[in-house]
Amino acid sequence: MELFLPSLLIILLAATVVFTVIPRFAPMTLTVIAIILLVLGVVHHYSLFKDEYRLSTWQTSSFIAPALVIGVALFFILGYLLSYFGSGVPVPTIPNVPSVTDITSGLGSAASTVTTAVTNAANTVVNTVTGNNSNRGILSNIGNGLRFNNRRSTFGSLANRLP
Questions:
Q1: Closest CA to 150 of 140, 160, 159
Q2: CB–CB of 145/129 below 8 Å?
């Protein structure tokens, strides 16, 4: 319990800082803070494990190997920082995007053209089928072909036939 509560408080404090304070910083500020914390962490780590570094088998007893690792890490970090100030990656220009009114007017004119073409084709077909060459339009031609317009009422003749 002695180790749990302080650790929990540290985690809650860190979460508060991460979610409230850090998002308000600029990216360059965060990068500088990260570099400072990295250097402090490396110095602290080296001071804690100085004897292990001295007795390790993959290096001599000099300071060359840890400095080399830190130097490579700082080289990559500085390269990242300098990428902000260089010409950077070439970004292509954005093509002109038509506005909504251009699209709707284009679609409207295309629909009108298609409707006119379909109506004219249907008139031609109906006129060819019915043998009617007048320009009365497709609806009257279809109505004439189905005898809607010339229908006679048969109610009178039926009434005369009833007893």
A1: 140
A2: yes
Check pLDDT > 60 for residue 150: no
For residue 161, what are its two tokens?
């036939």
The full DSSP string for 1-52 is -TTHHHHHHHHHHHHHIIIIIGGGS-HHHHHHHHHHHHHHHHHHHHHHTHHH
What is the average pLDDT across 20-45? Answer: 87
DSSP result, 131-156: T----S-HHHHHHHHTTSTTPPP-HH
Q: How many CA within 13 A on the CB side of residue 78?
A: 6
Alpha helix stretches (DSSP H) within 21-130: 27-48, 50-55, 64-82, 100-130
**pTM for the whole structure:** 0.34
Q: Which two tokens stand for residue 72?
A: 């490579």
State how far the Cα of 109 lies from the Cα of 76, in Å rounded to an integer.
57
Distance CA 33, CA 77 (A): 12
